[in-house]
């Protein structure tokens, strides 16, 4: 992690049964960390974890300093406390909130 700006997001995935003793699928999470589209080296790192706990982001980003573009999920917040990682709000997530306001309540703010 040598880039100054990283995008991060996590998404749930279904883990199929691994053995006969497991009765049903489980939920896991894929955490994605990506460089920006303007970076000479464009890359995405996928980190599979068994939960959405913020400890996974904290461990993955440990020692890294820079600007983290992410949603408002509280799991990322621990990295912002030191001041070494700067929170950059994701505009796609911000836009979604205004769109939801417009659709559900016909909010003039969202127009």
From TrEMBL:
Q: Where is the Transposase IS66 central domain?
A: 1-110
PANTHER family associated with the record: BLL1576 PROTEIN
**Protein name per Swiss-Prot or TrEMBL:** Transposase
């Amino acid at each position: 992690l040598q880039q100054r700006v990283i995008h991060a997001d996590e998404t749930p995935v279904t883990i199929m049964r691994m053995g006969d003793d497991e009765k049903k699928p489980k939920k896991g999470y894929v955490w994605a960390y990506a460089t920006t589209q303007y970076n000479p080296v464009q890359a995405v790192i996928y980190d599979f974890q068994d939960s959405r706990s913020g400890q996974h982001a904290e461990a993955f980003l440990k020692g890294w300093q820079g600007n983290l573009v992410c949603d408002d999920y509280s799991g990322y917040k621990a990295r912002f406390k030191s001041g070494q990682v700067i929170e950059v709000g994701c505009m796609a997530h911000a836009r979604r909130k205004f769109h939801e306001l417009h659709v559900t309540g016909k909010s003039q703010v969202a127009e």
